[in-house]
Amino acid sequence: MSPKVVLVTGASSGIGEVCARHLGDHGFQVVGASRRTMPDVPWAQIAMDVDDDASTAEGVARVVREHGGIDGVVTCAGWGLAGPVEQTPIADARAQLETNFFGTVRTVCAALPSLRARRGRIVVMSSIGGVIGLPFQAYYSASKFALEGWSEALAWEVKPFGVGVTLVEPGNFRTGFTASRRTVEVAGDDPYATAGAKAVGKMEEDELGGADPIAVAKAVEKVLTASRPPRRLSVGPSGERVGVLAKRLLPNRLFEAASASSLGV
Ligand SMILES: NC(=O)c1ccc[n+]([C@@H]2O[C@H](COP(=O)([O-])OP(=O)(O)OC[C@H]3O[C@@H](n4cnc5c(N)ncnc54)[C@H](OP(=O)(O)O)[C@@H]3O)[C@@H](O)[C@H]2O)c1
């Protein structure tokens, strides 16, 4: 049997890059997509901006043309936006959803005809921030909560075609994410300045001390090879996975009291 073709977005850095390498090492025919292409990688690459309709449609069509079809899509393209809700310009909030939410939508919809024909798999890179609303990262959380609801609904629609949809919810992993985060500038005397700096400082410290993203790549491989892939998979240190579980099980007031210090508030 010929190897399964998997399109990984965000493959030029971090989780996507490690997924591309790991899946390539484990028998998948990987095509990595991002705006930058990288020298000397063992997987095929396409330059694709998921913010752009034409770029994404052309990129996915090229994968189908050159590789005969797509068996799996792993959507890792994304970035983070930090800042208080009240002070974040709508243009910045829109840009956040443009990549993290609509970028995934564009990629998956373009690949769906091939995925339906091949009973494929869709792996959507959500986040712990797609389960827990992160203070001073509200628009990042909004983009990931949007993916959670969208993926759940999509799963029903594509089930009759044998297509699986899984949300992977990583905790903190050491990647280029911290360096590429955009931060809304606020004045020193802004009412949110102190609390925002504290929460963002805590989250950056947690990310920089985070785990190796190979754990996410191994989880993605498991999903792509499972006969019955899970709807959701939380990946990360046990403390962070417990947080996801607690959010789902505890009354809100209790969860919020228990999680405040780990969220830096
Ligand atoms: N690191 C964590 O702790 C963590 C935790 C939970 C979830 N996540 C999620 O994991 C995913 C990957 O993040 P990461 O941590 O690996 O960050 P990263 O190292 O910064 O990688 C982000 C990737 O996204 C690509 N990208 C960004 N905008 C793009 C666009 N418009 N079109 C195409 N590609 C684009 C970047 O490539 P180019 O700049 O070359 O385009 C890069 O390859 C994100 O969705 C993030 O929300 C990360």
Question: Could you characterize what this model shows?
Answer:
The chain is an alpha/beta fold and 265 residues long. The protein has one domain: 3-Layer(aba) Sandwich (Rossmann fold), CATH 3.40.50. It has helices at 14-25, 53-67, 90-117, 138-158, 177-180, 193-208, 214-225, 238-249, 252-259, and strands at residues 5-9, 29-34, 44-47, 72-75, 81-82, 121-125, 164-170, 182-183, 232-235. Strands 3-2-1-4-6-7-9 form a seven-stranded parallel β-sheet, with helices on both faces. β1, α1 and β2 (29-34) form a beta-alpha-beta unit. α1 crosses α7 (214-225) and α3 (90-117) packs parallel to α4 (138-158). The longest helix has 28 residues, at 90-117. The chain is globular. It starts with a strand and ends in a 6-residue tail after the last helix. Bound molecules: NADP nicotinamide-adenine-dinucleotide phosphate. NADP nicotinamide-adenine-dinucleotide phosphate binds next to α1, α3 and α5. The site of NADP nicotinamide-adenine-dinucleotide phosphate has 33 residues, from α1, α3 and α5.
CATH topology (level 3) name:
Rossmann fold
Portion in helices: 40-55%
Which homologous superfamily in CATH is the superfamily? NAD(P)-binding Rossmann-like Domain
Number of strands: 9
Structural class: alpha/beta
Low-confidence sequence ranges? none
Helical segment count: 9
Largest sheet: 7 strands, parallel
Mean model confidence by pLDDT: 97
Reading off the top of the CATH hierarchy, the class is best stated as Alpha Beta
Q: Supply the CATH architecture.
A: 3-Layer(aba) Sandwich
Strand order of the largest sheet: 3-2-1-4-6-7-9
Radius of gyration, taken over Cα atoms and rounded to an integer in Å: 18 Å
Gap between N and C termini: 53 Å
Bound molecules: NADP nicotinamide-adenine-dinucleotide phosphate
Please trace the helix and strand order, writing H or E for each element: EHEEHEEHEHEHEHHEHH
Number of individual domains: 1
Hey, roughly how much beta strand do the residues contain?
A: 5-15%
